[in-house]
Amino acid sequence: MNIITFIEMGHDKGQAKKGGRRVPEKRLFILAALGGGIGGWLGMRVWRHKTKHTSFVIGMPLLVALNSLCVIMVAIYM
């Protein structure tokens, strides 16, 4: 999921540069929430994309924390 989210962030950045059809922000957040938080955060950093959007600057690290918490909970209760 991280790879998919990272690629989507790069694709959206490319589309933004050439004025093409963009990836909806909702989709980027859903992908991040479904386990792609690290990919979304890395995509922001590598592609320098969405770094001025407060919702992404705060939201992606929170989703990384949520993803990490879910992994820890699954590991504890398995």
Automatic annotation (TrEMBL):
Lineage: Bacteria, Bacillati, Bacillota, Bacilli, Bacillales
Protein name: DUF1294 domain-containing protein
Short name of one Pfam family: DUF1294
Highest rank taxon of the organism: Bacteria
Residue intervals passing through the bilayer: 28-44, 56-77
Alphabetically ordered keywords of this record: Membrane, Transmembrane, Transmembrane helix
Keyword Membrane: yes
